[in-house]
Design a protein that fits this description.
This protein has 17 helices and 14 strands. The chain is of the alpha/beta class. It folds into four domains: 271 residues, Aldolase class I (TIM Barrel, Alpha-Beta Barrel); 30 residues, no CATH class; 62 residues; 112 residues, Alpha-isopropylmalate synthase LeuA, regulatory domain (Double Stranded RNA Binding Domain, 2-Layer Sandwich), CATH 3.30.160. The two termini are 29 Å apart. It binds 3-methyl-2-oxobutanoic acid and zinc ion (ZN).
């Protein structure tokens, strides 16, 4: 695509939620969830979807291949280190797409060169060989200089020139450790565009991490300096402090078109739904005051603000909730609401369900409406979280739970299905949640350690549902589970079991060695 993109005001959106986002500790997604997110991204108008790291595991390979087969409009990209084996595996996965892309990278800064034990000249040679190899397989090749921002400027210009000569069509300049500031981000891109021979034949991309909270500002500064592809994730998901948030850069360019006269092809009304789905499947809730998609982003608490907004929305609102797909009909539903009303409410909230999925959610909705007088949008969104946490694919399922608590001691009697076999255990504990978690451990022994247990009320009132998030760690693997229920203890058990199900999936993955020491590059 777009190596010679003629519309210079067009900025390509490259979404890496399924690759860099999924690299975030604990954000593992299942195969079905990855396919669903890819479909939503494609429908939203994302130009390039980085679907995964095919050599990382059989699971990653299968997900990238299937996303490639199902893709409609987006370019489907896979990541590979700078060796032939990675690149070949990546091509095997992405080649099914109507528009495939190979993305290959190498760390070019002094510390990365030290790890790979390559001299400057040896690295140039490696870049030439690997990009040429990728280009012989695929017309669309993206090359990234990992840690570009901390690479010597002259050397950066040389490696970029080498990648362009070898056939790269997109050159990515990542701020891998989130170190840069807007002025510098712009300066580096401007310098490369001006001085590297062949720069006018390629698209420059910006890929920022958010360690100093600068990712959005740095990405926009890079665009002002000539970058025409922004790499980003939904909700800013990603390693450490995350990546540039898609919703922030897209809405910033839209709201401040006067200062940033650039266009994307993103259908912004799909942003909120994607944000919710990514929060659900990754187990990373969106902070309340997060720009654009946080729960409070459009709430006006103070009297002065409320009054101003009622008189003229522009007084305190720079964009409308509907711009990102928030509907303002938070009309409560109840036990008399039928399937059609639920379907229409789900549609308003951005969920399009197949009949069997609707049936499953409807059963849960009825059970909730029996316990709770009024069911609000937040309840329905939480219900969707719960149904996502327990799919038919799951190895472990909660079947029955009885808990005794109070002054006489705490005891939990739990029955679970483990790979189809029902197993029960009764355990005591230091509080009802501890008793339940002990019962889970007895039924499914494991060495994972609990790193986070968090409870949040979905709405007001004592009949409110609780959303529980659980994070577990086992041998460096971190996984998260979340579930919602008016019964906080039951939600806790489901969240714990949800995290264990993800751990089971995660155990089959072996993280590739990022420094390439173990792979001879032409293997
Ligand atoms: O942050 C980074 O440098 C990356 C590269 C692999 C593109 O994610
Ligand atoms: Zn990154």
């Amino acid at each position: 695509m777009a190596a010679n993109m003629t519309d210079t005001s067009r900025v390509l959106i490259f979404d890496t939620t399924l690759r860099d986002g999924e690299q975030s500790p604990g954000a593992t997604m299942t195969h079905a969830e990855k396919l669903e997110i890819a479909t939503l991204l494609d429908d939203m108008g994302v130009d390039v979807i980085e679907a995964g790291f095919p050599i990382a595991s059989e699971g990653d390979f299968a997900a990238v291949s299937e996303i490639a087969k199902n893709s409609k409009n987006s370019v489907i990209c896979g990541l590979s280190r700078a060796n032939f084996k990675d690149i070949d595996r990546c091509w095997e996965a992405v080649k099914h797409a109507a528009k495939p892309r190979i993305h290959t990278f190498i760390g070019t800064s002094p510390s990365h060169r030290e790890i790979t034990k390559l001299t400057q000249e040896e690295m140039i040679e490696r870049i030439h060989e690997t990009v040429t190899h990728a280009r012989n397989l695929c017309e669309d090749v993206q090359w990234s200089a990992m840690d570009a921002i901390r690479t010597e400027r002259d050397y950066l210009a040389r490696v970029v020139e080498c990648a362009i000569k070898a056939g790269a069509t997109t050159i990515n300049i990542p701020d891998t450790v989130g170190y840069t500031l807007p002025e510098e981000s712009a300066e580096i891109i401007r310098e490369l565009v001006e001085r590297v021979p062949g720069a006018d034949q390629v698209i420059f991309a910006t890929h920022c991490h958010n360690d100093l909270g600068m990712a959005t500002a740095n990405s926009l500064a890079a665009v002002n300096a000539g970058a025409r592809q922004i790499e980003c994730t939904i909700n800013g998901l990603g390693e450490r402090a995350g990546n540039t948030a898609l919703e922030e850069v897209v809405m910033a360019m839209r709201v401040r078109r006067d200062l940033m006269p650039y266009a994307t092809q993103i259908d912004t009304t799909k942003i909120m739904n994607l944000s919710r789905r990514v929060a659900q499947v990754s187990g990373f809730p969106v902070q309340f005051n997060k720009a654009i998609v946080g729960k409070n982003a459009f709430l006006h608490e103070s009297g002065i603000h409320q009054d101003g907004v009622l008189k003229n929305v522009e007084t305190f609102e720079i964009m409308r909730p509907s711009d990102i797909g928030i509907t303002d009909s938070n009309i409560a539903m109840g036990k008399h609401s039928g399937r059609a009303a639920l379907r229409s409410k789900l549609k308003d909230l951005g969920y399009e369900l197949a009949d069997n999925q609707l049936q499953d959610v409807f059963v849960r909705f009825k059970a909730l409406a029996d316990r709770k007088k009024e069911v609000y949008d937040e309840d329905i969104i939480a219900l969707m979280t719960d149904s996502a946490a327990n799919t038919g694919e799951d190895q472990l399922q909660v079947k029955k739970l009885r808990v005794i608590c109070g002054t006489g001691g705490q005891e939990a009697a739990l029955t679970m299905s483990v790979g189809g076999e029902e197993i029960s255990a009764t355990c005591e504990g230091d509080g009802p949640v501890d008793a339940c978690f002990n019962a889970v451990k007895e039924i499914f022994p494991h060495g994972a350690r609990l790193k986070l247990y968090q409870v949040q009320a979905v709405t007001d009132g004592t009949d409110a549902q609780a959303t529980v998030s659980v994070r577990l760690e086992e041998d460096g693997r971190i996984v998260t589970g979340s579930a919602a229920d008016t019964d906080t203890i039951l939600a806790s058990v489901k969240a714990y079991v949800g995290a264990l199900n993800r751990l089971i999936v995660r155990r089959t993955k072996t993280a590739p060695d990022a420094d390439m020491k173990t792979v001879s590059f032409k293997e």
